[in-house]
Amino acid sequence: MFKLQIIITMSVNIKQFTAGEKLTVDEINTLLPCEIIFNKPDKHKLGNTYHEKALSCREKEIIQLIKLGLKNKEIAKQLKLAYETVKTHRKNIFRKLKINNVSQLIHLELKKHMTESEMFIKNRKHIFTIEQKISNNELTINELDEIIPGYLHINRLPDMVMTYVSPSGCNMFELTKEEIVTNYFELRDIYNDMDFIMKTSFTALVKFSTMFDQKSTFSFFQKIRSTINHDFELFCTELKLLPDNRELICITNPVSKLDITTKKLQGIFEENKFFDKNFQKFMSLTKREKEVLALVAKGYKNNDIGEQLFISNATIKTHRRHINKKLNVKHIAGLIKYADTFRLI
Question: Could you list the residue range(s) of the whole structural domain that residue 296 is in?
Fold first, then answer.
């Protein structure tokens, strides 16, 4: 038996999961191998919400400039403050928000404005469009490498060995491309927090890499350090299968600079409102549904589709019904619009 103190800072109704009936504290204590203790709210344990309210207007200004990547001297110049004053403000910000570095600060700011799911959706749109532009020779890897704050890499399936890393990745780790590719597994265990990946993303990553769906994307978080003497920093990796089904194109960016990444990439991508609005609908389609959609948009009849995909007429009708429902489309013209926008035809 062990004793667990649960600090409750506001009134809640605790309900029994199985029946939904309300329980008293005494009844709960008879059911659980722990003791529930009610304490008064402690303002120091309310987390970042409480401390954010304690930030001064000047400190909030400085946070916005830190998000843009400005250093202390640049912030001092822009706000016409002494360098030491900026350092003091920065120290107070970190103390109030209970954080230790800029990466944690940016992560807090992102969580205020964007959920993890929303962040992944933005990233998946990036990698989907980037892979298309590179495949169509509309964008080179070197051009992309100069834009993003992170680095681009290509990983081989099924062992995930890195076969290419962009110059910015080499600069980050202070290693040559040959050193990274040749010693990939050894270096991965040094520069990546593998326990973090195993706990948060590994199963989903393996599942995605075995789907062989060229029109799907995947995003996940990693903890990476640039040298063995540095702390781990939170990165977000976006990946997509290349046309040969043998490799993944990946972009790994620091979470602290995702806002900057989005703004820079928007500058090279033409605005496509249909793509932006309907990206999630398209991504909800299964691999087979995308194959059926492509053939329908090309003018194939159900019998022709069945012969090509080796499925029955009834199965095709079911797929088409699901496609229409997921995409909220009633006419062939709408299906062609999707197929054209997402490069199925």
Answer: 275-341
